Amino acid sequence: MVTESVSARIDYLQRCGAAADLPVATSHTCGDPTSRRLLLVRGISRPPRDPRTAASGERENWRPPTTELITGLYGYRIPLVYLVQSTSAGVEVSLGVWPTVPTVDPARQDGRLNVVDSVLRGLYPAIDLAPHTAPRQRHRHGAIAVGVPAPSGVDERDGATPIDRIIRSMAGSEWSLLVLAQPLAEHAIITEREAILNEMRTVMSAAKNEAAPSPLTEHYIELLKVALEATGMGMATGAWRVGIYLLGDGDSHPRLSSGWRSVMSGPKSLPEPVRTVDINGVDELARLWALPTTPGAPAPGLYRRPFEFQTLLASTQLAKCFHLPELETPGFRVSPAPTFSVSRPQPNDSVPAIDIGQIMNQRRPSALNYRVELDQLTRHTFIAGLTGAGKTNTLMHLLTQAASAGVPFLVIEPAKTEYRELLGHKAIGNDVRVFTVGREHVAPLRLNPLEVAPGVDVSTHLDLLKAVFTASFALWVPLPQVLEQCLVEIYTERGWDFGSSNHPPLDGSGQPPTPRLRDLVAAVERTVPSLGYKHESTQEITASLTTRLNALRRGGRGLMLDIERSIPMAEILRKPTVIELESLGDDADKAFVMGLLLIRLYEHRRAAHAAATSTAARAGAPPPAPADCATSSWSKKHTDYWDQNASRPMRGRQIPRAPSSTPSARCCRRYGPTGKASWLPTKSPCDLPPMF
């Protein structure tokens, strides 16, 4: 075969030479603009990338997730559109369907878009999609891109895909990329394959007749084999007639065309290398979403390309330039996709349970509710989330569900008053009680820190009380030891026995004699001088303790704390209760009151559990279970809410405040055997005390 003839065939196959002009009267493949359907992709979620460097072989075999989308939609012959528009506000990435005939049923187009939506949601752990009408951008310059895209794949350095690299190279510019893909019928693929085979037979026969080696002919045969292989892939996964339009202004258009060719070209861009051709009227074609039907230029051989301004690509080839970004950019969000359990055994219908909410699968609500047995409420619960994430709403839902099932709760609210909204709840509002600590004119609380509840060991109460004082007010050595001695004295004076833990005889009110804060102040004033400290140290210790204790006796705090009898904890826990600490301006006072409530809570439940165990032993019955859900006595269980953030009232000062939660944390840690639990909402697990 004459060398010039083979060279001309290669040039034709690879689109070498000057590009043809777009005929003025050419026909187009396009449809009614109202039948266009687009989905705006606002972001995706993906699993964390493997930190290990990808091998070069993996880059060459890169398979974009959209390959499955394109392959699947070819089965239904659904035309696809891929649109990327960049403005000063960011990038918009859209996928959808487009009409290739003048009249299309709108309902059919809606159904096609639903298919695209469904497949996309299956390709990514989570994807943010919204119906979209692409704003019309006018561009003065445009080009048509042809050839087989063969980019290098994902960059192992930063995970950038080809489209990411194009977007990054065009930062700050206004430009558009439009890819229109029309599925080819199988008979068109067969016709293409037969044309390639006939060309191969002709060239091979001519070379055989010449009986002389011809490297150029062999090269041409290899290019035809690549084209033949592509038709085989098209038969297997689908073949598309693809028109690619690159649009921009005088500055962005040359950059976009150059960037497209540099990114999309590769060793496998065969038999047609990637080229960009500047043609007048491209902007109008993009506006119409039209594919010119201009047939390929006359060929020097038997093979003639079917279209002059489009390229025939298999689904796998089309996906190389039809995929979503993997890197975040203004207008397109990329977030990690952690994996959570979405399936758990459902509680038996005979077991009381509450609904927590709907299970989210890939950030989409499912039809399955997450149900928890009531006996599981005795487990501690950690609720984490940023500001505004819904920690309070989650807790309020849990509390209303629990109260509706007969489980009372105690909410200790240090900073806000949101939980009083439960008073208006139609199911539990009539039973909810709210105490406003520090606001005597609303719903005051009475709480004597020194009162020892029935069944509680006085030594245990003294230790917990000292820990609360020390943690809340940052007492320095030897203040805690002096305070402890004063506490021992005032209890001993009233007949409390620390050795046997026996309570003293009851007074006229039927209660054991109980000291008050004023008694503790008096004990400090008379005890400290007898301890043998220097005069200056004695004055400092006395002033430090009495000043802090007297501060608790003034104003509303005094009316609440400097009393003889507290509201019994059994009464507080009898119904759903909210205790608000918002009116206490000093964070140290809030921590102190929270500590008092939690140790009284702990003591009450321990004493009740010990009494039940003793009663069972006397009756010869087995000891009660820590969380006895077989009975209906739910009124004896409760759930406690504690805002850990407010339990560190002096964070940032020189004195470390982490220990302020230690006595409370210790009490919460020991709740298990008593049939109660703590629900702890916080913004960060780091805020949890070490004992958790």
UniProtKB/TrEMBL annotation:
Superkingdom of the source species: Bacteria
Signal peptide, first to last residue: none
One Pfam match: DUF87
Annotated region (Disordered), positions in chain: 44-63, 613-633, 647-667
Helicase HerA central domain residues: 356-591
UniProt xrefs under InterPro entries: HerA_central, P-loop_NTPase, T4SS_component
Record field: compositional bias (Basic and acidic residues): 47-62
Protein name from the UniProt record: FtsK/SpoIIIE family protein
Native source species: Mycobacterium kansasii
